[in-house]
Design goal:
Helix content: 40-55%
Protein name: Putative phosphosugar isomerase
Keywords: Isomerase, Repeat
Largest sheet: 5 strands, parallel
GO molecular function, one term: glutamine-fructose-6-phosphate transaminase (isomerizing) activity
CATH superfamily of the largest domain: Glucose-6-phosphate isomerase like protein, domain 1
CATH architecture of the largest domain: 3-Layer(aba) Sandwich
Pfam families: SIS (PF01380)
Structural class: alpha/beta
Number of helices: 11
Low-confidence stretches: 331-335
CATH topology of the largest domain: Rossmann fold
Strand order of the largest sheet: 2-1-3-4-5
Length: 335
């Protein structure tokens, strides 16, 4: 069993460490700039969009930062982008994502402060943005994104929380820097359990994914880039509060629903969804942050992504698929 995702999954902790070692002062400088703007746009596609959703929801739970999230072309075509005292952060593993690059160029034309976060130092986005952060992951080959996801998210958290008025910022950033050590233990501890779970559910064809607050971004990644791209399973992400609109009519006995719970205030609704699912015999897979760590629950996606990666890795394997390969991605280009 030789899949590139396997080794890249283990490389996540060091990727964060190396990024902080090389980019910390740079991120602090960018944070200082962002602390003075009136609005911040987060722009990405695919897995990078999921980090934007998570960062926005985390910041808006505890700060007064004014943040909007867009996909690349939705930003590009939006006529109401405010270029006055605004900034935009563009995230892309390759730094060449056509949608996001077009949005970056549009933002430059509008006079926004532009920041690019990418894993490729010679990419167009890094060269064309006014400020940039280069994540230190080494080349990533598995399409669903492991180490580039966690480093992107960690840089967004560090920059945005440093720029915010959150009263526990120092404590949060200290815990953020401890994430690599926690990840190493969780990587070791959660493989076998999720391997067994994946085997049990290998014949399922559709999975729903629910999350609240910052966990919605992770639910989005789980459905869009992990289950659909990595395991080739049908999937749909929802905010937990939307469970009773639509999905509640498809939640039936033996339908698999993955639910993320981190005891956010809004997870009161998540628990109602869990209770309903268990009552009617849904195959409910609940991933609770408190089962893995007791750090600030705003950091939950960094924790819960690890057991989910193992689950998707083995789900793909037991269906004869390479979780890091693609069938169509890369064949369709938007120039």
């Amino acid at each position: 069993m030789k899949y590139k995702m396997y080794s890249e999954l283990f490389e996540q902790p060091d990727s964060i460490r190396k990024t902080f070692e090389t980019e910390l002062k740079n991120m602090e400088k960018i944070a200082n700039k962002l602390s003075k703007v009136d609005r911040i746009y987060l722009v990405g596609c695919g897995s990078s969009l999921s980090t934007a959703y998570t960062a926005k929801d985390a910041l808006e739970m505890v700060t007064n930062l004014n943040i909007d999230v867009f996909t690349g072309y939705e930003f590009y075509y939006n006529k109401k982008i405010d270029g006055e005292n605004s900034a935009a952060i563009f995230t892309s593993q390759s730094g060449e994502t056509a949608d996001t690059l077009a949005a970056l160029r549009r933002a430059n034309e509008l006079g926004l402060h532009t920041i690019a976060i990418s894993n490729e130092k010679d990419s167009s986005m890094i060269k064309e943005a006014k400020y940039s952060v280069v994540t230190q992951c080494g080349r990533e080959e598995a399409i669903l994104g492991t180490k580039t996801y966690v480093t992107q998210l960690s840089t967004l958290y560090y920059i945005l929380f440093s720029a915010s008025d959150y009263e526990k910022t120092d404590e949060l950033l200290k815990e953020l820097k401890s994430i690599p050590d926690l990840m190493e233990k969780i990587i070791e501890d959660t493989e076998e359990e999720n391997k067994k779970l994946a085997y049990k559910l290998k014949d399922e064809e559709i999975f729903y994914a629910l999350g609240s607050g910052p966990n919605f971004g992770l639910a989005y990644k789980l459905a869009m880039t992990m289950l659909m791209e990595g395991a080739l399973k049908h999937s749909c992400p929802l905010y937990s509060s939307e469970f009773r609109h639509g999905l509640i009519e498809r939640a039936e006995k033996d339908v698999p629903i993955i639910i993320l719970d981190s005891q956010y205030p809004s997870d009161e609704i998540t628990q109602k969804a869990i209770d309903f699912c268990e009552k009617i015999g849904v195959k409910t897979l609940v991933y609770r942050m408190q089962d893995y760590s007791n750090i600030n629950n705003l950091l939950s996606p960094f924790i819960l992504v690890i057991p989910l990666e193992w689950f998707v890795f083995y789900l793909a394997h037991y269906n004869g698929e390479d979780p890091g390969s693609t069938r169509h991605i890369g064949k369709v280009r938007y120039e």
